[in-house]
């Protein structure tokens, strides 16, 4: 049932937000020269996939977990996109393709071995990764792998249709912070 909502919402979202996506693409083209970031992430059953999002850091920046990123690498446009979560909009394509869900554990980099092990222990990789979830609306990021994996597992164990809509609603209302770059 959730997959059906993912398909409908991501398809409608891509159509409705197409003008905004186009504007952001052009702005990012001038900001970084390379508007989209394609980054390999760990997906369902630990199968790697290419996550797509708007680039918020200068090209050539090391591909590391956000909490380890250099704050000076984020562009002024990138700061705005991260704060408003607009950098995540292209991930609707990943949702439509079935690589992600709107709600689920945030996909990590394959280099985040501690987080991968913690999630593996708790069975988190049986689910599709998501754009938002319990950890995001609880302001927990990837800098605390054990806590993040625990919240991911708790969310998945009790995820209902009502919870699915709750996490989406809380994120839209600004409760979700996403991964923050240290200052």
Overall number of strands: 4
From the alpha-carbon coordinates, what is the Rg to the nearest angstrom? 15 Å
What proportion strand? 5-15%
Helix content: 40-55%
Order of helix and strand elements from N to C terminus: HHEEHHEHEHHH
Average pLDDT, rounded to a whole number, is 90
Biggest β-sheet, characterized?
Answer: 2 strands, antiparallel
Give me the secondary-structure category.
Answer: mainly alpha
Structure description:
The chain has one domain (2-172). Helix 1 crosses helix 2 (18-32) and helix 5 runs parallel beside helix 7 (145-157). The chain is 46% helix and 11% strand. It is mainly alpha-helical. The model has no long low-confidence stretch (mean pLDDT 90). A two-stranded antiparallel sheet has the order 1-2. A two-stranded parallel sheet has the order 3-4. The longest helix has 15 residues, at 2-16. It is built from eight helices and four strands.
Briefly characterize the structure:
The chain is mainly α.
Which key features would you list for this structure?
mainly alpha, single chain, 4 strands, two-stranded parallel ribbon, two-stranded antiparallel sheet, 183 residues
Question: What is the topology?
Answer:
Elements: H1 2-16, H2 18-32, E1 36-42, E2 48-54, H3 76-84, H4 91-97, E3 101-103, H5 113-121, E4 130-132, H6 134-137, H7 145-157, H8 161-172
Parallel strand pairs: 3-4
Antiparallel strand pairs: 1-2
Helix pairs in contact: 1-2, 1-4, 5-7
């Amino acid at each position: 049932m959730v997959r059906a909502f993912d398909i409908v919402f991501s398809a409608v979202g891509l159509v409705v937000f197409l003008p905004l996506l186009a504007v952001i693409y052009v702005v990012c083209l001038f900001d970084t020269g390379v508007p989209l970031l394609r980054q390999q992430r760990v997906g369902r059953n630990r199968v790697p996939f290419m996550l797509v999002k708007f680039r918020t850091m200068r090209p050539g920046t090391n591909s590391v977990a956000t909490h380890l990123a250099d704050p000076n690498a984020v562009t002024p446009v990138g700061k705005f996109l991260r704060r408003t979560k607009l950098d995540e909009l292209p991930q609707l394509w990943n949702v439509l393709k079935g690589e992600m869900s709107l709600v689920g554990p945030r996909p990590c980099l394959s280099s985040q071995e501690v987080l991968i092990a913690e999630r593996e222990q708790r069975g988190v990789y049986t689910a599709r990764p998501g754009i938002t979830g319990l950890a995001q609306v609880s302001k927990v990021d990837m800098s605390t792998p054990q806590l993040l994996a625990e919240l991911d597992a708790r969310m998945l164990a009790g995820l209902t249709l009502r919870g699915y809509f709750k996490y989406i609603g809380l994120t839209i209302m600004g409760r979700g912070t996403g991964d923050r770059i240290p200052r």
